[in-house]
Design brief:
The protein is an alpha+beta fold and 88 residues long. It has one domain: Nuclear Transport Factor 2, Chain: A (Roll), CATH 3.10.450. Helices cover 32% and strands 27% of the residues. It has a 3-stranded antiparallel β-sheet, covered by helices on one side. A hairpin with a 3-residue loop joins strand 1 and strand 2. The longest helix is centred in the first third of the chain and has 17 residues. The chain is globular.
Length: 88
């Protein structure tokens, strides 16, 4: 498995952390986020950072809110990537 595959897997985990509503995952009630589209970008950023706090080497740098989704700029072990999550 090369570095890009590892980063892709970590990003998939981060997307799960963003997309799952906190408290709805039966095995871990602290998994997920409190993100919703009515929040400001600052609130979304704070909840996004909280949701990936347990992922080593992952940091959410910024967010951009669109009509139905949010784009997250994430660093994974120093490499910058962007992921988008739909919150309809």
């Amino acid at each position: 498995m090369n570095d890009n595959d590892v980063i892709d897997d970590i990003l998939k985990n981060a997307v799960r952390c963003f997309a799952v509503k906190r408290g709805e995952f039966y095995a871990d009630k602290n998994f997920g986020s409190k993100i919703n589209m009515e929040q400001s970008c600052a609130e979304i950023l704070a909840y996004a950072r909280q949701s990936v706090a347990g992922l080593d080497g992952v940091f959410v740098k910024s967010v951009a809110k669109n009509k139905f989704d949010v784009s997250f700029v994430v660093t994974v072990n120093g490499k910058i990537r962007t992921v988008t999550v739909n919150f309809d």
